[in-house]
């Protein structure tokens, strides 16, 4: 299970939505993209995928943008990963030469997948927001 840049950008955008959740005002893709230095077109595609998955809702118009569809504690990170990447259902190829080595690698891949699913299922968007706030309070500055 891969955590791609698409998942990274989605989580960053969702953290922004979670921070302002309950304030009533939607957040535009432009606002998120500019504040987080994310390419607007790419983020727009990611937000569309999240909307189709029911993780966020959109509001049209001049003051439009996005809201979380649920409370932050209800949105699991695994749901975000699945919404963007789909279910990871890699299996052994249908070749005629299934070897013990290939089976061992398939077993390791499955253990890794299960471990990732377990970790991502236990963490919610609210957890990410809390960790983000902890980083802000600790005064750590990042320079690029």
Automatic annotation (TrEMBL):
Pfam families: Rrf2. GO terms for cellular component: cytosol. Keywords: DNA-binding. Coiled coil: none annotated. Transmembrane segments: none annotated. PROSITE patterns: HTH_RRF2_1 (PS01332), HTH_RRF2_2 (PS51197). SUPFAM superfamilies: Winged helix' DNA-binding domain (SSF46785). GO terms for molecular function: DNA binding; DNA-binding transcription factor activity. InterPro entries: TR_Rrf2-type_CS, Tscrpt_reg_Rrf2, WH-like_DNA-bd_sf, WH_DNA-bd_sf. This is Rrf2 family transcriptional regulator.
């Amino acid at each position: 299970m891969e955590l791609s840049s698409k998942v990274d950008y989605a989580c960053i955008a969702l953290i922004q939505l979670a921070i302002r959740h309950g304030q009533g005002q939607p957040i535009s893709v432009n606002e998120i993209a500019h504040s987080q230095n994310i390419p607007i077109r790419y983020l727009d595609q990611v937000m569309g995928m999240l909307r189709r998955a029911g993780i966020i809702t959109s509001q049209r118009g001049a003051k439009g943008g996005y809201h979380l569809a649920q409370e932050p504690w209800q949105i699991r990170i695994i749901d975000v990963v699945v919404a963007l990447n789909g279910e990871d259902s890699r299996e052994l190829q249908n070749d005629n030469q299934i070897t013990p080595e290939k089976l061992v690698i398939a077993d390791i891949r499955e253990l890794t997948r299960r471990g990732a699913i377990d970790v991502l299922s236990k963490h919610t968007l609210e957890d990410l927001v809390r960790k983000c706030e902890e980083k802000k309070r600790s005064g750590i500055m990042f320079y690029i």
